[in-house]
Write a structure and sequence with these properties.
It is built from 15 helices and 22 strands. It has about 425 residues and is of the alpha+beta class.
């Protein structure tokens, strides 16, 4: 197929890597891509949030499938003009993408679909937020209602910190003060064609900047898949996934279908496993980053067939995706100063050496080329991904690859997947 992938991060690099691994002769273009993606496929300078422009490019270049990576183009409605022009697109339209774009919209859909989640209180002023914080009590959970690049959520025992967080985000729109849920977090992706869903394999990411889950929230500093500890409670990964399918994914997708806003694309279920059962923390409307980097390398079913089936309403005819029996770990290398004030423009070396290691792939997130040198152009710069027969091997490979790479001032966590390595 001729496939256009929109985006410029490690998630998009992971999608492109999985498509290329099929060795099916796909002609892949990325817009706008990054230095690492440009080394693998053609890149074009195209604004991924401009739906009319993307649709025009797709028609002129006989694109058969458009895959939307990041949330911003989805929230902007990039998928709508593509569908209007008859171009298959993997990614929800603007209305359905509000599942990620608005916490209030997502909570309403969950309530109407009977999906279990934490009790929310909506606040449009500081006084309302303070009243909600005092009503729900500590630990305090405050979420920006709109997009916040993974930085809009605060969980804290510090009441003043919660008030300050609410005050800051209220400058940008409403906030949600939410009941605290205690337990292990799980990211579970579902492909959806607007009516049917197919699950991928669960992953767990690490949102805090520093070891031991300390420091500020980030877009994600690492991840691993699968989650062996799910077996202890559910007996198998499949039993857990089946429960989430019936409890969360299908009711949500069918509710959106009922409202006339079908969700076509990737439903990211951010879950927490509490003593009372599975609860939804959040929905996203696209592949998660960095979880995609550990889920797709384990996928045995061709990714292109799944994306096309979802985009064309054919998921009901597709078997459940199959995964390889291996462990995958990714560790994110971030710039100095990330997440508040990342230092950019510094030279990166050693990527080729890391890529040459068995089971290791370096996926680019924020890289460019300046005077022939690879340089960091953003906060999260690279994802070093490794697979292995078990988590000890995968983890050792990932960190060995990471230590091959030099980025002055670069930072990374040293405890990714440590709890599942034996």
């Amino acid at each position: 197929m001729r496939i256009l992938v929109l985006g410029s991060g490690a998630r998009e690099h992971a999608i492109i890597t999985a498509l290329l691994a099929e060795q099916a002769g796909h002609v892949i273009t990325a817009a706008p891509g990054n230095a690492g993606i440009a080394a693998d496929v053609e890149t074009v300078s195209l604004d991924p949030t401009n739906g009319a422009l993307v649709a025009e490019y797709a028609l002129e270049n006989d694109v058969e499938l458009v895959v939307v990576g990041p949330e911003a183009p989805l929230i902007a409605g990039v998928a709508d003009p593509l569908r209007t022009r008859g171009i298959p697109v993997f990614g929800p339209g603007k209305a359905a993408a509000q599942l990620e774009g608005s916490k209030a919209f997502a909570k309403r859909i969950m309530a109407e679909a009977g999906v279990p989640t934490g009790r929310p209180v909506y606040a449009g002023t500081v006084d309302e937020a303070v009243a909600a914080l005092d009503d729900l009590g500590a630990p305090y959970v405050v979420k920006a209602d709109g997009l916040a690049a993974g930085k809009g959520v605060l969980v804290t025992e510090d009441r003043q910190a919660a008030v300050d967080h609410a005050s800051y985000w209220l400058q940008h729109g409403p906030v949600v003060v939410e009941e605290f849920l205690d337990g292990e977090e799980v990211s579970l992706f579902f492909l959806s064609d607007g009516h049917d869903v197919r699950p991928l394999s669960p992953a767990q990411d690490y949102k805090r900047l520093s070891d031991g889950d300390l420091g500020p929230n980030t877009g994600g500093m690492g991840a691993y898949s699968p989650l062996p500890w799910l077996d202890e409670r559910w007996g198998s990964e499949q039993a857990f996934v089946d429960e989430v399918t019936d409890l969360v994914a299908l009711p949500t997708v069918r509710r959106l279908e009922h409202e006339g806003t079908p969700f076509i694309g990737l439903l990211y279920c951010g879950l927490i496993v509490t003593e009372q059962g599975v609860r939804v923390i959040e929905f996203n409307a696209r592949f998660g980053d960095p979880e995609t980097q550990v889920v797709l390398p384990r996928l045995a079913t061709p990714l292109s067939s799944l994306l096309l089936a979802a985009a064309t309403g054919q998921l009901g005819t597709v078997p459940r995706p199959e995964f390889r029996d291996q462990a995958a770990v990714t560790v994110v290398l971030a710039s100095e100063g990330y997440p508040e004030n990342p230092v950019t423009g510094r030279t990166i070396t050693g990527v080729d050496a890391a890529n040459a290691r068995d089971g290791v792939a370096v996926l680019h997130a924020a890289t460019g080329v300046l005077d022939g040198d690879l340089v960091a152009t953003g906060g999260r710069v690279l994802s070093v991904v490794a697979t292995g027969t078990d988590f000890t091997q995968a983890r050792d490979r990932a960190y060995a690859g990471l230590h091959d790479i030099d980025l002055p001032g670069g930072q990374f966590r040293t405890d990714i997947a440590a709890k599942v390595a034996r």
